[in-house]
Amino acid sequence: MTSNYHIGIDLGGTKIEVAVLDSQDKIVFRERLLTEAHLGSEHIFNQIHSLYKKALISIQNKTHSLGLGTPGSISKKTHLLKNSNTLCLNSLPLQSLLEDKLVHDIVIENDANCFALAEALMGAGKGYPSVFGVIMGTGCGGGIVFDGKIRQGPQNIAGEWGHMVIDPQGYPCYCGANGCVESFISGGGLEKRIQDKTGKTLSAIDFFNAPSKDEALKNIKQDFYARFGQALANLINILDPDIVVLGGGLSNEKSLYKEGIDEVYSRIFNDTPSTPIVKNMLGDSAGVIGAALIGRGLTQ
């Protein structure tokens, strides 16, 4: 049976959001709650259930597909969630638990893949054959879309550039490695480095707005651009995507599109680097829109 509505749930470390798309891909309902992961997995499931019930009311319980975007992915071997930075959800049978609680079939996909799909079909990547979507928020993730479909890979890890090691002597990551991209250029990683190097507690936004005369912060900023350049150049050298779309809170930092891109281009294995590296168009709606779209089976 064809669904006239597509419900998407975006499960983030800070917030959980639900949105309903109609048959024309227009958002007809949208709401969010805090994740409050410190209260545990059962609390998170209750938050999801509450949002889902409100979405159902908005469409009068009509036929719908249901997709959920989450950090990490479902293991094809164990069917348990793995690699999530919402640690209390790792090693849980997320799909079966949620299907029992919501009493509906659900498609689960990595949150960065959801972001990439939404931007590829409806946002900054529309019209490009291949799109790499980057999330630089609390964590750092990525997703690959070819010809309008998410590339998952046989291990469900395609696009996980946040856990590409760029400095083996770097900070330890929850994944078990040292010096992952996420530890350098995510918001959380950047804030930890600022604290360790300067003793200051600064948000990523305040950091980029800090006075340029502070030498310690200036050095961290230069290193940030260099790490961003190395990480993204490595990715482009391997995939050579038609476009890279940046998302997450750090994608709002204007200097990424000048100093950051200069660092990327200086490291690409080509004498005339030309990969468009652009800001997302859908803002913080991209993840939840992508979650709604995945119910259509847009993976490969």
Automatic annotation (TrEMBL):
GO terms for molecular function: N-acylmannosamine kinase activity; UDP-N-acetylglucosamine 2-epimerase activity. Pfam families: ROK. PANTHER family: BIFUNCTIONAL UDP-N-ACETYLGLUCOSAMINE 2-EPIMERASE_N-ACETYLMANNOSAMINE KINASE, ROK (REPRESSOR, ORF, KINASE) FAMILY. Belongs to the ROK (NagC/XylR) family. This is ROK. It comes from Candidatus Methylopumilus planktonicus.
